Amino acid sequence: MQNGQMNEEQLTDDEKVERGLSQRVDINTFACENCGSTLVFDPETRKMKCVSCGAEYPTPDPKPVTPIAYTGLSEQEFVNWGGVKSVRCENCGATITLKEFETANLCPFCSSPVITNSEQIPGLKPNGILPFAVTEKEAHASFTKWLKKRIFAPHKVKKNAKHTPMNGVYIPTWVFSSKVFCPYSARFGKHYTVTVGAGKNRRTVTKTRWFTVSGVINYDVNDLTIEASSKITQKELEKLGGFDMHAAVEYEEEYLPGFSSERYSQGLDDSWGIAQDKICAALKNMVRARHPHDVEDYINISPSYSGTTYEYMLAPLWISGYKYRKKDYGFVVNGRNGKVVGKSPVSVIRAFIATVLGLAALAGIGYLIYYLFF
After folding, report:
1. C-alpha to C-alpha distance for 170 and 332, rounded to whole angstroms
2. Which of 151, 178, 229, 372 has the fewest CB atoms in 10 Å of its CB?
C-alpha cells in the first residue's frame, strides 16, 4: 500500500462503487405473501412458486410481442455493459456481484433470485421472452438419453451423468423479419457426353453446355433468430432446432426468478449483418433450385429489404458440463423442446473394439462373396 491507497482486492463492494470500479444497480425481488420466502418461475405450471410452502402465483396475462421497426439507426453503437455490478440481496442483505452481461442470477448466500431492473441496463431493452417449458428434471432426462446414444462414450461418463448439475439461463437473441425483393443473374452448366474418335481411339467424353439465367425472387423472412450470447454459438443454436418464437410473450420479469439471464454481447446492427449473410445464402440456394444444373460459374444477387423488424428476445437454455480425465465437456439443452447439443469423450477401448468388429464383418462378407461366386 503506497500513498494511502488500497489494493482493489482490499476494498469493500461499497468502496468499489464509490471509486467507480463497479456500479450498484437496483434489483427486483419476488417474495411469497404467505411465508415471505422466495418465489421462482415453474416451467411445468407456468406459474411462480414458493420454494418453501409451495404456494403458487399467476404470471402476468401473456401479451404478444410487438416487433420494432429496424431502420439501421436503431442502435448507433454498441454500449458495453461496464464490467461487474454490485447488487444487494433484498432477502439476506448480502452484497453480491453480477458478472459482465449478467442481468439475473441467484444469491450465493441464500439462493434468492437477483434480477436487475431492466431500466438500468444500458443499451436496448428486451421486449420479448420465451419462457422455459422444459423442467430441469426433463432436461436432465434428455441429456442422459442423448449420452446413452453416444456409443463410444466411456461407461463411467454415462454412469455419472445423473449427478451432473444444470443451470437454467435465458440467453439474448435478435429475431428478424423482413420482405426481400431480389433480382438475380447466374451462369450454370449441364454435362452431356459425345463419342469421338474411331477404331481404337473411339471414346466417350464429357462436355459442358453453359447457359445464363435471370429472374426475381420475393422472399418473406420470418423469425430469423441470431444469437447474441457468450454462452452459445450460432451453429449450436441451429443444431438445437431453433426456438418456437411464435410462442414468445411480452417481456415480464416474473419469468426470470430461479434462472440466470444475460444482456446481449453482440449488438443489433452486427447481428442484422449476420442475418443478411444468412438470407443471401438462402437466396442463392433458391436460385440453384430453380435452375437444374451440374456445375456453377457464378450467381449474382441484389437483395433489397423492406418492412424489416426486430425483437430483442430472451430464449431458454439449460447449460451444464462435466470433466473427464482433466478435460471439460459442455452441453446445452433447449429449454423449449429438450433437444441436446454437446460433446462427449471417446473411449479408446470401445472405439478399438468397434473397429475390429467392423473389419471382421467386412472380411466375413468378402469371404462369403468369394465362396458363392468363385
Report:
1. 12
2. 372
